[in-house]
Amino acid sequence: MTLTHLFDVETLPVGPWRNGGGDTREIACEGSAGPDGGSADFGWRASIATIAADGPFSPFPGVDRTITLLAGEGVHLIADGAGTAGAAALDHRLDHPAVPFAFSGDHALRARLLGDGGPVLVLNIMTRRGRWTADVRRVDAPVPLPAGHAGVLYLLSGRGTNTGPGPALRPGRGRWWTSGAADHAAPLEPGSVALWADIRPV
Questions:
Q1: Residue 112 in contact with residue 120, Cβ under 8 Å?
Q2: Which domain holds residue 142?
Q3: What is the pTM assigned to this prediction?
């Protein structure tokens, strides 16, 4: 059986962004992330980020990213195409909860908070291009964990079954794993809704 690791967003260590625009709670990292996840050593990284103010997003050359709104009114992400590796322009409003948005970390992004400008909370999945790739989706039923894949499950509503050490899942908690097993399923009770990041080697 796959060994999964429990996390709770309320107890994850909090690290401030270097530009003061938010903070990050790291869930898991394959390799070494370094400050703000900026090291070239990580293969994949999962975190919960708070975007607290308008301002720049640090570019991550060679990294693919997927972010999903968890709480708050949303954020407008803009890039003029001046990022690394000839990244094209980008203009996206992340304002629908639990709808993943994938983009290249090569972008030099600016973020503008929507609505009253209050902070937003997002799930952030980053994968090193050419080594790992991720598919993030909203799920409402148990899903098989493919053999050899890593992953993250974050519960949005309902409950999760307890398939490992520690308490059962509730909203704001989740599990992550470094490898999957074809006969094992993500621990969701009927009627529950979660975000599942299937992270697989290239």
A1: no
A2: 135-201
A3: 0.88
